[in-house]
Design a protein that fits this description.
GO terms for molecular function: oxidoreductase activity. The chain is of the alpha/beta class. The chain has twelve helices and 18 strands. Helix content is about 35%, strand content about 30%.
């Protein structure tokens, strides 16, 4: 049965979500930008369109009545308020806005409204959390490590990155301390620290460094050791650390004559440098390692997820891996497989009553979309 879905945000990921869901449901996409809406409608002319600010509660209330589900794909700086508005409207939500606020602050409101709101529903956070949650429910997990990144295929050593998201968000990621779990305790370190090389069979060596990506995992799963690292081409961390240490990422500082805003100027420069060109080859890769005891044996599970985008629809790998994780969860929610009301962290989905089915369905949906998922089990002597 076709359901009515409202997608807030017509950016790269929001567009991919709308296109994927439109085959089986009635999709309307809303954005404050007419240009962004037109880009999505070129690929999917059957979708409805709404030109309005998704953060406007009154407009959202008057608009959302006829919808069975809302997907929040708005930018992080308005994501939390938009999610709150969706919950106020009494609508179930799948959220990929990755806002900095604590989503559990809205848990009581979501329960009061009878709403299911699945947050952080991308690849990482998102799928990485689900892998952690699945194994947490099926074995005694001691260590969880996630390496993830979206990168251009080729690099000349200086132009080593193209931003699938806003450069402002990337800069924020490099400024915020990374939190991880070591020996059961939360530890903080600067972003871009603890650089290491990680080898991939077909990609060669990529650089990994600390970023603040565990998010809800810090509160939900009691695993003694957990860390998330961002992957880039080698040398990227040094270049970004140089810019950060010399103040290029600072919000502002005063001179005798004026106020300087280094961060905004740097973001504009990086936007030009990091803007992907049309049909530029790129990929998203994630490796997740889970180590623990299963059937009295020390066991390691290694997941490798890889995608190189879709040239036919000009959909990037990051939009596909993020967006299709969200659409898989949206279908499960619409079909009644997700039972609990409130704010739902992605790692909690595999721990629901039908958790194994939910987890396997999400993996199957991603594979059907052409995303490579390899799982290797190793017994450790």
């Amino acid at each position: 049965m076709r359901k009515n879905i409202l997608v807030l945000g017509a950016g790269r990921v929001g567009g991919a979500i709308a296109l994927d869901l439109a085959g089986t449901h009635n999709v309307t996409i809303a954005d404050i930008s007419e240009k962004a809406l037109q880009k999505v409608l070129l690929l999917n002319p059957n979708s409805g369109r709404l030109l309005f600010d998704g953060g406007n509660l009154e407009r959202l209330k008057s608009t959302s009545e006829s919808f069975d589900l809302i997907v929040n794909a708005l930018p992080g700086f308005i994501g939390f308020s938009a999610l709150k508005n969706c919950i106020e409207c009494g609508k179930d939500v799948v959220d990929i806005s990755f806002f900095p606020e604590n989503p559990f602050d809205l848990h009581a409101l979501a329960q009061e409204k009878g709403v299911k709101a699945v947050v952080d529903c991308g690849i990482a956070p998102g799928l990485s959390n689900m892998i952690a949650g699945y194994h947490f429910a099926t074995m005694d997990v001691r260590d969880f490590v996630c390496y993830v990144g979206g990168l251009p295929e080729k690099t000349d050593g200086t132009d080593d990155y193209k931003a699938p998201f806003s450069p402002d968000d990337v800069i924020e990621e490099y400024m915020r301390d990374a939190r991880f779990i070591r020996g059961g305790m939360i530890v903080r370190k600067p972003a871009l620290s603890d650089v290491e090389l990680v080898d991939f069979d077909t990609l060669g060596a990529l650089e990994a460094f600390n970023t603040d990506g565990l998010r809800t995992l810090l509160q939900t799963l009691h695993i003694p050791n957990m860390v998330e690292k961002t992957l880039r081409h080698p040398g990227h961390a040094d270049r970004m650390q140089f810019l950060r240490d010399f103040g290029f990422f600072d919000d502002k500082f005063n001179t005798e004559r004026s106020v300087i805003f280094p961060k905004s100027h740097t973001a504009e420069l990086l936007k030009r440098k990091w803007r992907p060109t049309l049909h530029e080859k790129e990929f998203t890769v994630m490796r997740v390692e889970v180590v623990g005891t299963e059937n009295r044996k020390k066991t390691r599970y290694t997941y490798t997820i890889y995608d190189a985008g879709d040239e036919k629809t000009n959909t990037s790998s990051m939009a596909r891996t993020t967006g299709y994780t969200a659409t898989a969860v949206a279908r499960l929610l619409l079909n009644g497989w997700i039972k609990n009301n409130g704010i739902i962290a992605p790692e909690c989905l595999p721990m629901e009553k039908n958790g194994k089915f939910i987890f396997q369905t999400i993996l199957d949906d991603l594979r059907r979309a052409g995303i490579s998922i390899q799982i290797k089990k190793t017994t450790i002597d």
